[in-house]
Amino acid sequence: MIDFDNMAVARTIYKLRRERGLSQEVFSGLVGMARSHVAMIENGSKQPNFETIWRIAVAFDLAPHELVERIEREAQPALPE
To answer: Domain limits at 34?
Structure first.
């Protein structure tokens, strides 16, 4: 079982935004929220609700379950080698 990890949410969204070359300002416009709200999600101080996850996924051209899968992978602890 994977425990909820708010920082995994933050890291995943930050990484996806950077990979796509989007500033917080542009991304916040795509998602339809204030840039400060995006910043708080990316630094882990704000937890997005399901509607926000949905809107973020759509802005990244992902299905919501694909975004959640990426967050789950980020939340899983690294396996020892």
So the answer is: 6-72
Q: How many domains does the chain have?
A: 1
pLDDT tens for the chain, 81 residues: list them: 667 888 999 999 999 999 999 999 999 999 999 999 999 999 999 999 999 999 999 999 999 999 999 999 998 865 555
56/75 Cα distance (integer angstroms): 18
Tokens coding 28: 């916040």
The DSSP element (H or E) to which 42 belongs, if any, is helix 35-42
Q: Specify the amino acid at residue 30.
A: L
| 16: CATH | 1.10.260.40
In this prediction the pTM is 0.88
Q: Which two tokens stand for residue 69?
A: 């899968």
Query: If we measure between CA atoms, which residue out of 17, 3, 2 comes closest to residue 67?
Result: 17
